[in-house]
Amino acid sequence: MKLAVKNTNMNKPKIWLSSPHMGGSEQKFVNQAFDTNWVAPLGPNVNGFEQDLQHYTGAKHAAALSSGTAAIHLSLILLGVKPGDLVICQSFTFSASANPIAYQGAIPVFIDSEPESWNMSPELLERAIQACQKGEVMHQGMKMPAQLPKAIIPVHLYGVPANMDKIEQIAGKYKIPVVEDAAEALGSSINGRKCGTFGRFGILSFNGNKIITTSGGGALISEDGEAIAKSRFLATQARDNAPHYQHSQIGYNYRMSNIVAGIGRGQMEVLDERIAARRTSFERYNKYFRTASQRGYRVRFQPEPEGSFANRWLTAITINPEENRGITRETLRLAMEAENIESRPLWKPMHLQPVFEGTPFFGDGTSEMRFKHGLCLPSGSNLTDQDFERIFRVLDEVFI
Ligand SMILES: *Cc1c(COP(=O)(O)O)cnc(C)c1O
Q: Which residue among 245, 336, 357, 395 sits deepest, i.e. has the most Cβ atoms within 10 Å of its Cβ?
């Protein structure tokens, strides 16, 4: 590769990793909210968006919330997670999967990934459950009392489905409920069944860079109508049925606003197009690196396990310098940055995060290796052919 130091050319428009991509009807729904003065954390758009989500995912019930993080938090509250409890969580994820465990004063038990999907390893999951059961788990130097974990949080990283068959099987064996973090996986599926509908609860996110966005927002989905009704109650300050304001338990302000839900309704109309575009981007990169392999490079992609369909929210690769003539993911990331193109290292696993130091972890190095060599490439559904020309020009310079 050329090692010439290049001037950063910020005159070129920025190519984002994943930026919002509106479809058209969003404004219509938002305007309706203004016209009817439904400017509140409830209203026709909230109800409509919940119905859209139910219809699309096949979940019986959905509650639209202020964020995906709020959805995880409420699911843990509904499952009765309390201080000192253990909650199993995939380590290779964004911090929002794990933070709500700490909100409840519970202790996360982090599980490493399997190579097949880069998501929670079923084998390590079972080993961890057994260790918790036997009282062999250490937290900050102290042995935790023998107990079964209260919940299991697997994640569909970058939209690639986790091995839900095996995870559900193990969870069922020990009767531990699953909270499925499908924040990145709206539209992904396993044998035709949508991600988010496998666990007791599924959580979705509509943050600014997700596959569809409401600027910020999330949802909790489930087959359990009573639990979803309870989540709405908790999300609106847990107000009892009385003419005055009466509260018998602690509530939260986690409901989605009717304005934001209007954006969501518009976005649902184009979701399948967005998925198709992201999968096409993935294919473009894949094809590029198949050709590069003839020049002696070996860039690896996050696999799509058999029977599963990934929305390919972000195209994630690993570049091991030993297989790529010394090129590292930083070589590529910095070369992109110099051209005003955003790429990003993979999520730093939770067991390596300073904030979770001393927290139990069951692993074999799988996520650590991926983090070390991994990069997310620009994957927005609004990337143009010209954007790809610029991206491939950088790739050509690096993988010469
Ligand atoms: C985005 C994300 C969340 C949280 O969603 P917010 O809506 O941003 O709170 C949770 N888990 C994962 C894996 C995410 O990527």
A: 336
